[in-house]
Amino acid sequence: MHSSETLSPATPLSPAQPTAQLTAQLSLQQVSKVFPGRDRWSDKLLKRTSRPFVALDDINLEVKAGTFVSIIGPSGCGKSTLLNMIAGLSQPTTGTITLNDHPVVTPGPDRGVVFQNYALMPWMTVAENIRFAVETVYPQMSIVQQKSIVQDYIGLVGLGGAESKHPHELSGGMKQRVGIARALAINPQILLMDEPFGALDALTRGFLQDEVERIWEQERKTVILITHSIEEALLLSDQIVMMTRGPAARIAQVLEVPFPRPRKREELDQYPGYHSLKAAMEHHLSCETRAVEESRIRR
Ligand SMILES: Nc1ncnc2c1ncn2[C@@H]1O[C@H](COP(=O)(O)OP(=O)(O)OP(=O)(O)O)[C@@H](O)[C@H]1O
Ligand SMILES: [Mg+2]
Question: Does the domain spanning 26-110+188-298 belong to CATH 3.30.70.2190?
Fold first, then answer.
């Protein structure tokens, strides 16, 4: 895997936050996920049968602290399933997931999750949504400290002035910023993002990608980003994990992205190796997606 030795350690944005280790080394060993009793229509029996569904099989991955890793693969291959297990929201059927050598068993404040559907509390303002996360994770912290952290992260994601707005008063891009601020404000060691920009228009998406790159430059968290966008993965990542189609999806290949940082979107296609990396990803995705379609037609 790509070395992050040249990266400087992250600096906490607020002195109010704990100074524990700020980034995480992630390890997945022989991880599989089998969903029990998935109902299916059997063509021959014309009745529901229930058999286990193997979503992921033998996933092995080492992510160094401070590395930005994207996961890309055909729709339905198991990316969210994998991210949910890293978040501790569900357990692997076999294998182990560790963060800094500690097994992941439940969700925890060392992991910040940005959900695709925002998952904001509708009755709370921007500031309250973020503060709720901070006070849940740091109940011993004074209200003044909590508010200072909230304000820091509102500024970091460019939401200054929108503190008192409720989610229904925000655009999709603004809601996504609240989600990113909320995930970062608990000072997690690893940031897990499930297609955070998928629902946004191209302009907002580009703007938020640049924001995430800027924040990553500043914070150097370990990041796992699920995306369907080849360009997004090439712009942001140190490594790109390419998954096969499911069932029993695996990691097909891990690509190293050696482009210098900070990266400039408009210069991306001039970096040496850009076109061959892009072609490799396009080839992989089109082969896997075509195979999914063919197996659907055969069924
Ligand atoms: N709770 C569950 N029970 C049974 N099967 C499930 C469950 N959750 C997910 N699956 C199945 O596991 C597979 C992987 O789903 P997952 O949501 O992880 O895919 P994905 O790669 O995130 O897809 P997308 O790119 O469309 O978001 C799919 O076939 C899905 O139907
Ligand atoms: Mg998904």
Answer: no
